[in-house]
Structures
1.
Amino acid sequence: MTTSSSKYLPKRTLEARYYTDPAAFEIEINGLLARTWQFACHSNEIANVGDYIAFKIADQNLFAIRGRDEVVRCFYNVCQHRAHELVRGKGNSRVVVCPYHQWTYELTGGLRAGPNIKSVPGFNRTAICLTEVRVENFNGFIFANLDIDAAPMDEWYPGVRTEIAEYIPDIEKLAPLEWVECAEACNWKVSVENYSECYHCPKCHPTFAQGVIKPETYDIQPMAEGYVLRHLTECQSLDQMSYPIDLSANEHAGEYRSWFLWPMFSFQCYPGNVLNSYHWRAEDSDNCVVYRGWFTQGGEESETIRNLAVQDRETTVAEDITLVESVQRGLKSKGYVPGPLVLDPDCGVMSEHSVERLQQWMREAIDG
């Protein structure tokens, strides 16, 4: 007789090729990562007219710049003359000047001047403009999308903009205090999966599990609509918290919330209404870079946040790097066979429902 338990076939993790095959990575670069909203910079990093910052999305060099009309625009970082890169790093400029032949562009992208161009018969300066990329300001965070036809962020992540603002008072007034850049020798999806489950937290992250959150209350669930995973838990008891918080500050001061926006960004509200973030940059099939951001009002100095950033970097971040790099090595083992996911019907910290949803999105991105 066949029992009901024998009929059940556990859902299994993705095959190793999704994480190790350079061909799969190329599909993502030209597909998923070129058609989704990716973090560019924080608006306070380009707060003044002429402020710019260069960055990369889906293997494309871009830059964001604030115009004289206070509008933030994003362009491909390439001169329309002979393809030299226009800017590097961050800075401020009244106009954008190509270092190669000094073609000069307005902050709106239009060509302003170029050496000897007036001598060229029929040269139409007004027809030349930098190629623009879509941008959105999401609670002070600037996101870009290479797909001109992409749905707006509020359709990709419905309700998140408002919900975050409820947990982070005056979020629009925040600015980066510190960025922590971490290179990881793993596929970006391995790192994202690790971030998006806490099945490993009690054992692998003792400082986080004992000094920040209560693991027994931790849960991660896909939001009802869109491409969002919401983490929620309570803070640890005050006598065990690794940093001071004021529970009377507002109704959410004792909570931890995180909103992961597929595919490569997460807002986190630590207990005490501390905003921090993760964003990922995919380098190749075996490497990514993770940026950890910490924010304060106007970027003002805060000993508490500085200490928390150090604690996080020396514990949770360092611990995760060891974990994800081991997983990437394991995915290349001839002995690896995709294992069953732990899907507890009651969900909770010891369930991998969030990984199941992530791997669904990952499979769709590569296989269609």
2.
Amino acid sequence: MKYLKLSVLFLCGLIVLTGCKEKKDVIAKVGNDSITVEEVSERIMSAPPAYQAYINTEPGRKQFVDLLVREKLILESAKQAGINKREDFKTDLENFKEEQAKQLKDYEDGLLIEMYLKEVRENLVSASDEEINKYYEEHKEDFTHPVAIIAKHILVSTKEEAEIAYDRINKGEPFDKVAREMSNDKVSAQRGGQIGPFRRGELVKEFEEVVFNLKDGEISEIVETPFGLHIITKISEEKLPPIPEDVAKAEIKSIIEKTKFDKWFEDMKKKLNVNVDYAKLDSIKDTGFDDGINITQGETELEDFSN
């Protein structure tokens, strides 16, 4: 019985203390709403870093609480005025909820992709030391006597377009003019189709097999890559200093893993019966983007079909 009384007294004490604590945690009351210590602390933490130093001073915190009071007062007044029951308010709120749901879905998809790609990289496309060493021995010349090439290309989507471009060049039109007017690679087209300098292993295999075997000024036949149909001309070739073996092997690792990933990607496309109708892109309205914007030499135009 004695222990029971003590327990009851102890519980009563806790209730009293808790009640006092909760009452103490309330900094301000605004109508039916209140501002607590926890809320102020959270809002201070989320404030921009530039304001943190001032907010963490005594006058700064007082001013910050005054701003929260003002916010709560306006909020309470808006509710009393019935703003939250108006149709325009409800419409805007529903639009916001839809946008939030879309953002949540985008985040969910992005998180799935990020986590799965990490597993793909680690388990399916990682390059072994044996593969790296084998590649190095088979392509040693590319690292002990590397060269950098500058070239020009015209990229089109169909065989008909490629034949028209090729015919225009063969009839004497400048390569630069045809590239500017016909190439789908809008970045390099502004420079008459010029790309580079690039080394072997930096572009897709089909492109490299042709360009590294051209003579300066020679124009290729029509070349097909996963990105379309190209007409290529080689501008120049420059010899570079030897690349240290450790640097070379780091590059080789990237090349092998990119090649493996591309194969994995193509296999998955077949497995999932991927089919794309690019002709329907013509039905998309023009966004108004100005493709005449100047792009500096430092901005890469190789990204779309490089390793």
